[in-house]
Specification:
2 helices; alpha+beta; two-stranded antiparallel ribbon
C-alpha cells in the first residue's frame, strides 16, 4: 500500500503510516516535510508533532501479511 501524497510504499520507519486528527493516513515523511503541521490531503491544521501521531496498525498488519512491509 502506498501513501496517497507521495505514492511511496508505507514502511515501519521513515514512511510509517500515521493517522492525522482529521482521519486521513499519510506517511511520516510527508508530514515532516511541511513548514506547518497540517494534513496534506485536506489541509486541516493540527497541533501534534508528526512523530507523536498514532501509526495505522491495521495497515501495517495488512502489509506484513502480504509480505510488503520493509
Amino acid at each position: 500500500m502506498q501513501c496517497k501524497v507521495c505514492d511511496e510504499e508505507f514502511d515501519r520507519e521513515v514512511r510509517a503510516p500515521k493517522i492525522v486528527p482529521c482521519g486521513h493516513t499519510v506517511c511520516l515523511r510527508c508530514l515532516q516535510g511541511g513548514s506547518e503541521t497540517k494534513c496534506p490531503t485536506c489541509n486541516k491544521v493540527f497541533d501534534a508533532a508528526p512523530a507523536s501521531l498514532l501509526s495505522n496498525l491495521t495497515l501495517l498488519e495488512n502489509l506484513e501479511q502480504q509480505g510488503e512491509a520493509r
